[in-house]
């Protein structure tokens, strides 16, 4: 059982989310007014669902406000499919997105995959080239300087680094990082890797290489 916060100004969507996830035993807190959220209590949740288009404060702005207050997965619920919007949302610290309209199985699969990912056990430390991972605290450092990554970005880096030299398709990365039954689009991986590369470019170091026509690999 997980504690889930759903924020959407569409009451029908909130009721559907509550009914679906409630049947799985989750405790769902629903709110249609994002301006009334008690931010001092936001860290009690195991996963947060945010609509993007809301009055008062949109999902992007709300994600920015709460990302440093929580380390749980944040998923956007959006009807917007433009690449620019999705890139923006993931860059702000969201882990994934679900496009409206979505079905019961998709919602359950996506939520389940992210919650299981949170429970994975990690070893303590992994050093690959100039990069060192503190696996227990989910931190990545370049030359002993911590890089600020979202949870999804970190998991992708850790997976590729643990399997350095091996080439993985976007589908394989998606399945390995987010789970077999995850329904995310392959573009999620492309966007996350683009954001990772942007952050690493400040260090003139780019261990994630594109293997054209196949996918990505971690190499020195």
General description of the model:
This protein is α/β, with parallel strands linked by helices. The protein has 2 domains: 3-118, Response regulator (Rossmann fold, 3-Layer(aba) Sandwich); 125-218, Orthogonal Bundle (Arc Repressor Mutant, subunit A), CATH 1.10.10.10. The chain has 7 helices and 11 strands. It has helices spanning 11-23, 59-66, 83-91, 104-118, 151-162, 170-178, 187-200, and strands at residues 3-7, 27-31, 47-51, 74-78, 96-99, 125-128, 131-134, 139-142, 145-147, 208-211, 215-218. The chain has a 5-stranded parallel β-sheet, sandwiched between helices. Helix 5 crosses helix 6 (170-178), helix 5 (151-162) packs across helix 7 (187-200) and helix 6 crosses helix 7. The chain is globular. The mean pLDDT is 86.
Helix content: 25-40%
Instruction: Give the neighbour order of strands across the main sheet.
Output: 2-1-3-4-5
What's the total number of strands?
Answer: 11
Distance between the termini: 41 Å
What is the structural class?
alpha/beta
Low-confidence stretches: none
Q: What is the CATH fold-level name of the largest domain?
A: Rossmann fold
CATH superfamily of the largest domain: Response regulator
Proportion of beta-strand residues: 15-25%
- The assigned CATH architecture of the largest domain is 3-Layer(aba) Sandwich
CATH class of the largest domain: Alpha Beta
Number of domains: 2
């Amino acid at each position: 059982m997980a504690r889930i916060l759903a924020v959407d100004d569409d009451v029908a969507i909130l009721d559907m989310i509550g009914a679906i996830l409630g049947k799985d035993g989750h405790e769902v807190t629903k709110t249609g007014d994002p301006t009334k959220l008690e931010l001092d209590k936001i860290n009690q949740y195991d996963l947060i669902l945010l609509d993007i288009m809301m009055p008062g404060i949109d999902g992007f702005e709300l994600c920015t406000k709460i990302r440093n207050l929580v380390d749980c997965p944040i998923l956007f619920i959006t009807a917007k499919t433009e690449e620019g919007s999705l890139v923006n949302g993931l860059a702000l610290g969201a882990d994934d997105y679900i496009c409206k309209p979505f079905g019961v199985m998709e919602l359950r699969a996506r939520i389940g995959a992210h919650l299981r990912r949170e429970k994975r056990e990690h070893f303590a430390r992994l050093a690959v080239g100039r990069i060192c991972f503190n696996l227990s605290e989910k931190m990545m450092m370049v030359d002993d300087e911590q890089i600020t990554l979202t949870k999804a970005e970190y998991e992708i880096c850790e997976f590729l680094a643990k399997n350095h030299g091996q080439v993985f398709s976007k589908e394989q990365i998606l399945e390995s990082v987010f789970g077999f039954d995850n329904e995310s689009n392959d573009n999620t991986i492309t966007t996350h890797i683009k954001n990772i590369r942007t952050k690493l470019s400040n260090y003139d170091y780019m261990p994630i290489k594109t293997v054209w026509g196949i996918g990505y690999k971690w190499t020195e």
